[in-house]
Specification:
alpha/beta, Dihydrodipicolinate Reductase, domain 2, seven-stranded parallel beta sheet, oxidoreductase, 7 helices, Rossmann fold, single chain, binds 1,4-dihydronicotinamide adenine dinucleotide, 31% helix, 266 residues, 2 domains, NADP, binds the ligand O=C(O)C1=N[C@H](C(=O)O)C[C@H](O)C1
């Protein structure tokens, strides 16, 4: 198998650390460089917690891609940085695998157009965990029979974006198979603003943020005299890594942008 040269943006973050470790232990992956907010010009090996892992550090994505010419960028940063990095990567012919969430439909459309112009692959994956992909697929299946649904996503309290990328993606998949409808009583009123949550195409989404949590989601369907709950839990960030590995391998064979691993995991 040919070696895939990878740049990781956000290596010191919770997900970035796992990704560095994944690349280190995968024979056909090579950590070519990292993009970090600090330590420009330094080496990852000199950063606490990365002893023995040699990779040049860049704060400027464009300069990194120009000098390193990697095959793939794995971005695990913040919504603002992730959008910028993905766009610069595509402009330099580097295939982005974006785990960072908080992208709007317009962001995804812009990156899709750019990937098409460049004729190279890109993946935006709101969730890399296989169980989460299945949860979303099962939810889409169930929505054909249970059109009334609410999503509750629960995450650690350091998360920047709400609702989660996974919750938005779940709502998008559900709205593909059910007609738009207003749920609840037609005359319902919130006596406390936000009580009924955010809505995506009429689907309420509720975001919980608490210390101690990692990443969890329930999709609750209500029907006549019955309810169906589909739940997924990530108890650690290693749960996302098989999806990161698959995405890096797959993006090398793509010529367009894929949004969501449900298109890859059949
Ligand atoms: N797709 C998936 O399966 C998953 C996605 N995520 C997403 O991944 C992203 C990162 O999550 P965490 O690791 O928990 O966050 P974190 O806050 O632990 O890490 C983010 C890292 O990005 C770095 N960063 C910020 N701006 C930067 C810039 N301009 N250049 C380089 N580095 C920069 C920060 O210094 C930090 O080290 C979030 O958007 C989160 O929603 C998280 C878990 C799973
Ligand atoms: O920030 C996180 O932690 C996670 N973010 C992703 C999301 O927004 O859906 C994926 C997972 O839920 C963990």
């Amino acid at each position: 198998m040919e070696t895939i040269r990878i740049v990781i943006a956000g290596p010191r973050g919770r997900m970035g650390r796992e990704a560095v470790s994944l690349v280190q232990k995968t024979d056909h992956f090579q950590l070519a460089a990292v993009i970090d907010r600090k330590n420009d010009g330094g080496n990852l090996a000199d950063v606490e917690g990365f002893s023995g892992i040699h990779a040049p550090i860049y704060t400027d994505a464009a300069r990194c891609f120009e000098e390193i010419k990697p095959d793939v960028l794995i971005d695990l940063t913040t919504p603002e940085a992730g959008k910028k990095h993905a766009e610069i990567a595509l402009r330099y012919g580097v295939r982005p695998v974006v785990g960072t969430t908080g992208f709007t439909d317009e962001d995804i459309q812009r990156l899709t157009t750019l990937a098409e112009e460049k004729g190279i692959g890109a993946i935006i994956a709101p969730n890399f965990a296989i169980g989460a992909i299945l949860m979303m697929k099962f939810a889409q299946m169930a929505a054909k029979y249970f059109p009334d649904v609410e999503i509750i996503e629960l995450h650690h309290d350091q998360k920047l974006d709400a609702p989660s990328g996974t919750a938005v993606k779940t709502a998008q998949l559900i709205s593909m198979v059910r007609p738009t409808k207003k749920q609840g009583h037609p005359d319902e009123k919130e006596t406390l603003a936000g009580a009924r949550g955010a809505t995506y195409d009429g689907i309420p989404i509720h975001s919980v943020r608490l210390p101690g949590l990692i990443a969890h989601q329930e999709v609750i369907f209500g029907g006549n005299g019955q309810a169906l709950t589909i739940r997924h839990d990530s108890f650690n960030r290693a749960s996302f890594m098989s999806g990161v590995k698959l995405s890096v391998e797959t993006v090398m064979k793509l010529h367009t942008l894929v949004y969501g691993l449900e298109h890859i995991i059949e």
